[in-house]
Write a structure and sequence with these properties.
By secondary structure, the chain is mainly beta. Helix content is 5%, strand content 48%. The chain contains two helices and 22 strands.
Length: 278
């Protein structure tokens, strides 16, 4: 793991072995990552990724496995092909309290194609805001429907009954984080943009973090949906905040809607989010 921090904000542990995703996310002496309080999906790539505070799924598939189809054998793996691909660090620097890290990740897709993820992490040393800018490029010879979902996973033992999810995309503007059945629930809704075209969700107040709220913002042109997942089926105890490129439907249904947008060979698509504890 690689420590990444600015003059303010969380201390992050970035994982060069797997997409430069976030393992630990530490505020003071509190690590928000769920660790082993996660479900076992039978895929060690995903178990490793889910333990951390943020992992990325895609770029060829999101959510649960589905057959590749088109005369090809096999299935798209759980949460796509990105997890476990190593990152090549291009630069890592600290200047004026800010921190930056850039990397590229070359990805072998399940259907035989290839893609490259260019990733840029930034921490603003004045505000403590963490920003992620991603660019997915199709480096293969044929197009593929690019898909992407960010899983931000929080150990739910840190959350008490007063913690709420708040955002204009939510019914009534917000509700308790403990939605759904006793052991959990999941929903996916269209996000709503602010004046700058980015959506915003808040989680809190989190008394374990001195009453702070986790503020998550994400660009809506390529991440037009918000999925939230809560799982308290032991040993799991996790809440996931998940900006995502596609609604919660299977590939066939998305294709019928005309929503499997193909990324042609050589073309790129950009994604981004930020988070802060306010």
């Amino acid at each position: 793991m690689m420590e990444f921090k600015g003059a303010r904000g969380p201390v992050l542990m970035l994982d060069p072995r797997s997409v430069l995703d976030i393992g630990a996310c530490v505020i003071g002496d509190i690590d928000l990552a769920p660790g082993r309080a996660i479900p076992d999906d039978g895929d060690p790539r995903i178990d490793h990724s889910l333990e951390g505070f943020l992992f990325t799924c895609g770029p060829d598939h999101i959510r649960h496995p589905e057959p590749i189809g088109g005369g090809m054998s096999g299935s798209y793996p759980l949460h796509g092909s990105l997890s476990s691909h190593p990152a090549t660090i291009l630069s890592s620097r600290h200047e004026g309290g800010d921190a930056d890290c850039e990397a590229v990740i070359d990805v072998a897709l399940a259907d035989g194609g290839t893609a490259r993820l260019h990733r840029h992490w930034h921490i603003d040393g004045t505000t403590g805001t963490v920003s992620l800018s991603d660019r997915v490029t199709n480096t293969g010879t044929t197009g593929f429907p690019a898909m992407l979902m960010y899983h931000m996973n929080i150990g739910a033992w840190l959350l008490d009954d007063g913690v709420r999810l708040e955002g204009p995309m939510l019914e009534g503007g917000g509700f308790s984080y403990a939605f759904g059945e006793k052991t959990g629930g999941i929903f996916c809704v269209p996000a709503e943009p602010g004046e700058d075209g980015w959506a915003e969700l808040r989680l809190g107040p989190i008394e374990a973090l001195g009453g702070r709220k986790l503020q998550v913002r994400f660009r809506m042109d390529t991440l037009p949906f918000l999925q939230v997942w809560r799982n308290q089926s032991l040993p799991a105890n996790v809440l996931g905040i998940e900006p995502v490129s596609h609604r919660w439907e299977g590939r066939a249904a998305l294709a019928e809607r005309g929503e499997l947008h193909v990324l042609p060979s050589g073309d790129s698509r950009e994604y981004g989010l930020s988070f802060a504890f306010v």
